[in-house]
Amino acid sequence: MKKLSPEEREALLLHMITELFNEQITPGQVLHQLRKGVLGMSQERYALLVNISRRTLSDIERDQGSQSLSVLNRVFKPLGLKIGLLPRSQHLMRALLPDGPKDA
Asked: Distances in Å between the alpha carbon of 101 and those of 15, 20, 60, 76, 84?
């Protein structure tokens, strides 16, 4: 796998977050793609890094289970992300990002 430059990693992260905001991708899919695309890590290795079981990581990536906020924040932290509250309304979501893409 080609190692991404810092600029490429940031562009991929921003692209994935934009897709998440536009409900085109799930949080689990974001985690899966960034774990592989940015860090190039297996589930086994990443689970060890964030101190959870591989099964829990797999469940999160498949948007299954009911993990605590603490666990989810631990899982997303190496990617520079944290869990937060977002409006359900697309109109309000877009208002949060006035300079961002309106529709992907």
From this structure: 10, 12, 27, 23, 21
